[in-house]
Amino acid sequence: MKLLNCLKPVMLGLVVAWLAAGCATTRTKPEVAPAAAVAESAITAAEMAAVLEPWPYDMPQAETVPEPEPKMSSNEGAGKSGIETAIQSTDFTGRNLTPGDALHIAAAKNPNFAEYAAAREAALAEVMAATAWKNPSLEAGVGRGKTRGTPSTSGFEYSLGLIQPIEWPGKRGVRKEAAEAGVKVAELDEALFRSTLRADVLRAYWTAVYCDDDHLLGRSLAEIAVKECRLMEALRAGGEVPDAGMLPFRREASRLEQERVKLAGELDMALLLFNKLCGMTVPRVSPWFQFDALDMAVPGVHDKTAARELAQRKHPAILKLEAERRRAELVVKQSELAKKPDFTPGLEASRGVDVTSWGARLGMELPFWNRNKAGIAAAKAELRRVEAQLAVKRQEVEAGVTMAVLALESAREQLPNARSGADIADLAFEAAQKAFDGGETNQSAVLAARRELGFAARILWRSTLEVVLARIQLEQAIGYGEMK
After folding, report:
1. Which is nearest to 27 in space by CA: 167, 123, 118, 133?
2. pLDDT tens across 252-306, in order?
3. Of 91, 105, 132, 437, whose CB is crowded by the most CB atoms within 10 A?
4. If phi over 0 gives left and psi between -120 and 50 gives alpha, with beta otherwise, what is residue 439?
5. 176: closest CA among 122, 119, 127?
6. Domain chopping of the chain, boundaries
7. Who contacts 89 (Cβ-Cβ below 8 Å, separation ≥6)?
8. Do residues 256 and 218 make contact, with C-beta atoms less than 8 angstroms apart?
9. Would the pTM count as exceeding 0.70?
10. Hey, what CATH class is 2-46+100-144+155-478 in?
């Protein structure tokens, strides 16, 4: 009973310390949220509209093919758009995909987002670990003692101690800030991926549009070459064309047929790449595109200086390195605090053969030999490395935006020539057709004019694609990653 009474203060101290540590950990436990759309500092559509002209699909479009009625219960899918229903059912029958739809599908189905969500949850777990208190330790001892007096008595002796490690003031707070900076790094890493994915999806979409149009035109050119060969065969049979005169037509027909097969393969690859970026949820159906490349307006740049400034201010790669620099600065501070000694206060109680006692104790490390110089040096070196990377990245972003602007302007300047060539070829074909109808020329001249029109159209489509790809590259260079 005496031992129990003397140990009551120690037991009470143990309960209080355990509750304090548990409550502190619970209070600072962050909630693991679902995948965030983008980091708070992401570039918005309004900011992009201030520096770049809008895409055609950013504006209201004409009505497309009606969407089929979804097969679902009365409550299922309530309030969902047609594209959301199509994403869930993977049934895109009866609708065309806009570039915005493609971005929506990729944001919902690309499997890489699961990896970034896991990285963010791991970073949040580090915050939990950083804010947790150290566990107390309980020490107990038992032995047998003997008094020195006469007569001598002997008996069992008991002891109990409670020790609660306490860090130097500020250590826990800095560790928490460093862990929270790690969460920001994870969020910005996902934002950077979104910017890259957005550009890749749009590139794949418009490349598929181009390949689809180019494949159709290549097939048309191959058919024209076959007709020319048949016409020349008829003329050769009538003795109007020598055998040697057939070789160029046969060679051209063979070349265009090989090119048609090649274009069909390129279309399959373009569709496969697009489908891969969309999580393999889009069926192999062609064409299912909303726009024709020839009908694309050519968006330009409102303000080059503002575009570069926006990239320097909000490009996710720069913001990520700034967050890493902040974390490295906190790690330096954390390393400098590590040389400060921690305290080990405790409560003790004991019962001897002839005495019962209780009291308090205080221990601390004496940093004589190890003052964490190596850890501080390593942390400062890491900070210098991150600062150097940030300086390099700023230059890369500046150069990337400048080069993308130049590429877009160059592509826009070349486009009128391609359009002019297509217009001239169209006029030449109309003139040849009119002359043939009036009996002034033969069918061979009409087929030749039609073939030249096809070649001019291919040049125009390719020039249009170059403009579109240059615009996408400029958006990526600025760091735009919105996928709504």
Report:
1. 133
2. 788 888 888 888 888 888 888 888 888 887 765 544 555 555 556 667 888 899 9
3. 105
4. left
5. 127
6. 2-46+100-144+155-478
7. 70, 71
8. yes
9. yes
10. mainly alpha
